[in-house]
Automatic annotation (TrEMBL), chain A:
Family, per entry: Belongs to the binding-protein-dependent transport system permease family. LivHM subfamily.
GO molecular function, one term: transmembrane transporter activity
Localisation per UniProt entry: Cell membrane
Name of this chain's protein: Branched-chain amino acid transport system permease protein
UniProtKB/TrEMBL annotation, chain B:
Annotated InterPro entries: AAA+_ATPase, ABC_transporter-like_ATP-bd, ABC_transporter-like_CS, BCAA_Transport_ATP-bd_LivF, P-loop_NTPase
Keyword terms, alphabetized: Amino-acid transport, ATP-binding, Nucleotide-binding, Transport
SUPFAM superfamilies named in the record: P-loop containing nucleoside triphosphate hydrolases (SSF52540)
Name this protein carries in UniProt: Amino acid/amide ABC transporter ATP-binding protein 2 (HAAT family)
ATP-binding as UniProt keyword: yes
UniProt family annotation: Belongs to the ABC transporter superfamily.
One Pfam family, short name: ABC_tran
Length: 298, 235
């Protein structure tokens, strides 16, 4: 029972991170209609920024806030300078640019900060004794912190999309960009804000996951997380925020259970389980569990 | 002076030119109807004015050049109800109307206008919290008109508002358009296949043919012209 609970806790924690990164993917997908392959590496780059700031003996919370700001700026700039010029051609061009960014950002991080592994401090209490006991299982402070971050972010995003003009305009552009433009919405600004927002959310995922990740902060930290987050976004149907969160948690827990209980999978086939989930979803329900099939009334 | 004035406007899609020099005027508070066969360039003209297509020539609003970007066109007081209605289906009726007020900042006024259009179009009031994608075609057309009016335009462009609607709904819609034109003095440029109905509303009619203005005049002129009548009005 304790083992099960511990696996559940670890699954939910990883799942929260997947959910965060999946949310970032969904925000971009709704606006631009493409999967941003560079999302994980953008998160990695901003996490390096946060780590570097902590090495300049700045407080961790300041470093995280700065990373979110840098993530927002980079996301918005990428949209304006790289994505928008090629988006007019076709979706494939955007995909290729995102792939280029994927390697570019990774190399840039390596160039600036070197390829050796860094230790990223956690913003939450994560000492050996910072846990509470739940049914015999240990629930550590940093796990609780990650859950809390996801819940707070969900709340903020709900407020943004339900009650603010920017949020309303983001949903309008996602629904029908031409109609939104004709109604006077500044579509280009809204798209840049969307990319910026997803850059900031990705940065949050990055700074929260690296203290927990087995690889800590290295150039490969985000690869497996990005794959799981893509699976989570796909699980939810790519355009659903709730779906991304549910997908992230489900994949996190499934992964923890599969690697824990199915000895063949173990640690080495962990990413394969995410891949397996992607294939099964595409096979059974191509629009994802929460995705919308576009209905057109004529 | 004209409210909207097109002079020798050419436009098209990529290398293919569809409009070969359109000259057209809409006076303040006037209803103008554009007739023409499929492919004559009616929708292209509307899209050019709305800033969805780049154009050459001159388009002026109140004697000042009209900007070429859609959101700036709306800001200047010209609003397009696109063909096919452009419903924001995943948003509620109320949210659709709020998006229509994107260029405005007067929160109180926006609320008043929402109330007003929900009264003018009672079905929108009844279904205000419903997703717009679940409305019928006629209801979506009402919503599209109301959304365009939320920006308080001086000129409303309507591209084939009757498309795909039942005759009774079309009559109701045109009656409402006539009412709005009367009470608010909103000028309208309407593209319509249902020529007779549209001409009842209009004071000026333009006839487009292969990207040029083939004829223009009052509805009475058009009804009296046998050649035009048989070719375009079908009786």
């Amino acid at each position: 029972m304790e083992l099960f609970l511990e696996r559940l806790i670890s699954g939910l924690t990883n799942g929260s991170i997947y959910a965060l990164l999946a949310l970032a993917l969904v925000v971009v997908f709704r606006g631009t209609g493409t999967l941003n392959f560079a999302q994980g590496e953008l998160a990695l780059f901003t996490t390096f920024v946060a780590w570097w700031l902590t090495t300049q003996s700045l407080p961790i919370w300041f470093a995280i806030a700065a990373a979110l700001g840098v993530g927002f700026l980079m996301g918005a700039l990428i949209e304006r300078l790289l994505i928008r010029p090629v988006a007019k051609r076709n979706d494939m061009a955007v995909l290729i640019v995102a792939l280029g960014l994927f390697t570019g950002l990774n190399s840039l991080a390596g160039l600036l900060w070197g390829s050796e592994t860094k230790i990223m401090p956690s913003p939450f209490p994560n000492g050996e004794s910072d846990f509470i006991s739940v049914g015999g299982a240990r629930l550590y402070g940093d796990a609780l912190g990650v859950w809390g971050a996801l819940i707070v972010l969900m709340g903020l995003m709900t407020l943004l999309f339900r009650f603010t003009k920017v949020g309303l305009h983001m949903r309008a552009v996602a629904d029908n960009a031409t109609s939104a433009t004709l109604a006077g919405v500044r579509t280009s600004r809204i798209l840049a804000i969307g990319w910026g927002l997803s850059g900031a959310i990705g940065a949050l995922a990055g700074v929260l996951v690296t203290p927990l990740a087995p690889q800590q902060l290295s150039l490969t930290t985000m690869f497996s997380i990005f794959i799981a987050a893509s699976a989570a976004a796909l699980f939810g149907g790519l355009d659903s925020l709730v779906g991304a969160v549910v997908g992230g948690l489900v994949i996190g827990v499934l992964e923890a259970m599969l690697t824990g209980y199915v000895s063949v999978i173990g640690g080495s086939l962990q990413q394969t389980s995410a891949l397996l989930i992607i294939v099964v979803i595409l096979f059974v329900k191509p629009t994802g569990l929460f995705g919308t099939t576009k209905l057109v009334r004529v | 002076m004209s409210l909207l004035s097109l002079t020798d406007v050419t436009a098209g899609y990529g290398p293919s030119e569809v409009l070969h020099g359109i000259t057209l005027d809409v006076d303040p508070g006037e209803v103008v109807v554009m007739l023409g066969a499929n492919g004559a360039g009616k929708t292209t003209t509307m899209q050019a004015i709305a800033g969805l297509l780049t154009w050459r020539g001159s388009i002026e609003l109140d004697g000042r050049p009209l900007p070429q970007r859609p959101e700036q066109v709306v800001r200047s007081g010209v609003s397009l109800v696109p063909q096919g209605r452009g419903t924001l289906g995943a948003l509620t009726v109320l949210e659709n109307l709020r998006v229509g007020a994107a260029v405005r900042t007067d929160t109180g006024g926006i609320g008043d206008d929402i109330d007003r259009w929900c009264e003018v179009f009672p079905v929108l009031g009844r279904r205000s919290r419903q997703l717009a994608g679940t409305l019928s075609g006629g209801e979506q057309q009402m919503l599209a008109v109301a959304r365009a009016l939320m920006s308080r335009p001086r000129l409303l462009l309507c591209d084939e508002p009757s498309l795909g609607l039942a005759p009774i709904v079309v009559q109701e819609l045109f009656a409402t358009l006539a009412h709005i034109n009367e009470t608010d003095g909103t000028a309208m440029l309407i593209v319509e296949q249902n020529a007779e109905l549209a001409m009842d509303l209009a004071s000026t009619v333009y006839l487009l043919d292969v990207g040029t203005i083939a004829a223009s005049g009052t509805p009475a002129d058009f009804r009296a012209d046998d050649a035009v009548r048989t070719a375009y009005l079908g009786y």
